[in-house]
Amino acid sequence: MSTLYKIRENKINNKQYLESLSKKYTNPLPIDTISCVIKTHNIIYIKKICSNYNLSDKKIEEILKTLIKPNYYTPTIVNSEEKENMQQYL
């Protein structure tokens, strides 16, 4: 009898947990979405250019590895104007 009680209790706890997860969802920032789109389009363009020049798959992967970097597409957002002005000097 205790196992049936535990099963029901676990089911209720799991349901509550899943509901709490759905409430914690935050939408991605617009800059993240734009960065993702730019990155995918750049990959498409690089592959088109490589196919026009008849490059091998190995060479294409090498070019993609050198040109597609994560920090190119995820800028650091600065919230204060002072820090933004400091970036000009760096």
Give the proportion of residues in helices.
over 70%
CA-based shape: flat
Low-confidence stretches: none
How many domains is the backbone divided into?
A: 1
Q: Which structural class do the helices and strands define?
A: mainly alpha
**Main sheet, how many strands, which sense, barrel?**
none
Strand proportion, as a percent range, falls in under 5%
- Termini gap: 69 Å
> What is the tally of beta strands?
0
Order of helices and strands: HHHHH
In round numbers, the mean pLDDT is 85
Can you tell me about this structure?
By secondary structure, this protein is an all-alpha fold. The protein has one domain. 77% of the residues lie in helices and 0% in strands. The protein contains five helices and no strands. The protein has helices at residues 2-23, 30-52, 57-67, 70-73, 81-89. The longest helix has 23 residues, at 30-52. It is flat and about 70 Å long. 0% of the residues are buried. The mean pLDDT is 85.
Structure summary:
By secondary structure, the chain is mostly helical. The chain contains five helices and no strands.
